[in-house]
Amino acid sequence: MGRVTVRRPVLRVSGDEQRRGQDSLAAEEPLELRVGGVPLAVTMRTPGDDVELAHGFLLTEGVIGDMADISTARYCDSLDEQGRNTYNVLDVALAPGVAPPAAEVTRNFYTTSSCGVCGKASLEAVRLKSRFSPGQDPVTVTTATLTLLPELLRDAQQVFERTGGLHAAGLFTAVGELLVAREDVGRHNAVDKVLGWALMAGLVPAAGHVLMVSGRASFELVQKAVMAGVPMLAAVSAPSSLAVELAEDAGLTLVGFLRGQSMNVYTGAERVT
To answer: What is the pLDDT of residue 124?
Structure first.
């Protein structure tokens, strides 16, 4: 497995003072995801939890809906100039009878803030692809519980503590128990790792749970929550307009600007008590 952090020399400047030292940086390396030997996607990610990342990506893209849909996942064909495995290519074999990814799923995404499709077409595409609907989930979460989540997630960010350069996502119960937290240079990767973990743990559809993210709530993150059957998504920053539209359309509760004792509930306010 690749390194999660990298040490690099740095010149620190503070006013008139300068000193040289070492700084820890979050590692960023490409991961090529293949399905049945066929390249499917490339993402820049922080190495680690790659199998979870692959499961989460395939789940949220509608390729799979159950652990039984995947036969194996293994690293392959990724050697450096010394012949050592870099663990940057992961090949997933689908179970017999599971359809391969549709053509529109195949994409390279080095930087992305949404699904790559805009407007009502995006909303309709998610509605048609999702196997789980959070709209009928009766879960409620108190405001007191919600206000605890950012700090609980922050306490679990061990690599962020050393580097200050990672996004995070966490899956919580309705009473605020943190089940899993994952960090990554890409916010979408952090969410895929969390939802991949949930799939592998038998928690998808993730009814009765809250997905918490350390940044903003983009359309893509709402899409991923809907595809995994998560009824509530909370973010410390702002949502986009299309994220709110999708959340409302899917019956997902979307909370933004969750900081201290304050928050904005954009959709599904009946779940916040």
So the answer is: 67
Residues in the chain: 273
User: Does residue 144 lie in a domain region?
Assistant: yes
- Residue 108: pLDDT band (50, 70, 90) is very low
Q: How many domains does the chain have?
A: 1
Pick from 209, 197, 192: nearest CA to 252? 209
266-270-271-273 Cα dihedral, nearest 10 degrees:
100
Domain that holds residue 214: 134-271
List the one residue out of 194, 203, 142, 151 whose CA is nearest residue 170.
Answer: 194
CA atoms of 209 and 232, how far apart (whole Å): 7
Q: What Å distances lie between residue 149 and 86, 97, 106, CA to CA?
A: 35, 40, 34
Q: Give tens-digit pLDDT for 241-253.
A: 999 999 999 999 9
115 in active site:
yes
Helix residue ranges per DSSP H, the chain: 50-60, 119-129, 143-155, 158-163, 187-200, 219-227, 241-250
Any idea what the Cα angle at residue 266 is, between residues 262 and 268, rounded to 5°?
A: 110
User: Does position 112 have pLDDT exceeding 60, yes or no?
Assistant: no
- Closest among 231, 234, 177, 169 to 204, alpha carbons compared: 231
Residue 87 belongs to some domain of the structure: no
Residues of the chain above pLDDT 70, percent: 89
Which residue is catalytic, options 33, 115, 171, 222? 115
CATH number at residue 251: 3.40.140.10
Q: Is position 266 within any domain? A: yes
Query: Does a structural domain hold residue 57?
Result: no
Closest C-alpha to 163, from 181, 182, 184, 178: 184
